[in-house]
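Regression test attached.
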Amino acid sequence: AELAPPTLNISLDEDPEVRWKPLLTVFDKDFLNKAGAQVIDSTVPKWVHHAIAPVVSALEKYVPQPYAGEIRGMASHFGGKISDVILLNFAYEISAF
Amino acid sequence: CTSIVAQDKSGNVYHGRNLDYPHPILMNLTMNVDFLKNGEVMYRGTSFAGYVGLWTGQSPNKFTVSGDERRSKRWYNWWKNIVSAFLLGRSPVSWLVRETLEGAEDFQDAVMHLSKIPIITGVYYIVGGVRPGEGVVITRDRTGPADIWPLDPLNGRWYRVETNYDHWLPPPATDHRREVANKALNATGQEQINLETLYQVLSLPPVCNGITIYTTTMSAAHPDEYRSLIRQQS
């Protein structure tokens, strides 16, 4: 059986840091954190993850708007590390090597 | 991934895609997102919770777009991705999709954006429009297009299939997705192609396979018919 995914309304009129807040009406915060950790663990070796976390955090200032604000907002809403949300958002570019 | 853009005998353009990724957890993170501006849907896409980019999207009555992975042939060029991202400030490929959905005026403008704006690493962008002939596969390098492969319905090329290999090269002998999709589209025929038959083509194994997360079918001229379905994985 195929399932239709949930639909979310994201208002571009909202500030980037708060516009993804409706995610929490559809997805459980703990589930999101666990799922994110699972994707990272299977993509990046643990020691590399620990080693690059501070570097990735420092790179945040190079991320352009509105994505920087959106990523920061997501990390804040979900209680996750900003370096992990950045890693997830660069998953394709990372998996390319 | 597999993306297909096709045109029926009446000139309607249809676009479908399978998103493949070897993480079943993504099935539970998949969502449709309506991006609103002044309360109106400016564009729509299918994505994963926590991910701000788009690999599949539609600008209503303008164009549809999907992205398929293009692997680098030389793994040791990974450092170029780093330079490309942080020193040259280029966009991740999924952010350019979103920017294009937000800013492009029409199909032609979208194709220009997706072809020319520098990105971090290579990808295939597949774009469908609202007028006859408006369908294209763009093979992207970091700095620009490696190839543009448009529909050519007047010469019988009424569909284009893109998986994860340059279309002018044969795929690996073990990967039959392109071949199966081509055969199924030929069997369906231009008279019978529509969003439903396109979905059926995308449901055939191995086009739809154990790592297919979701299938989307869409047609920019009929934005309400945008449909994504999460696949059961074997």
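Expected vs. actual: identical. The mean pLDDT of chain A is 89.
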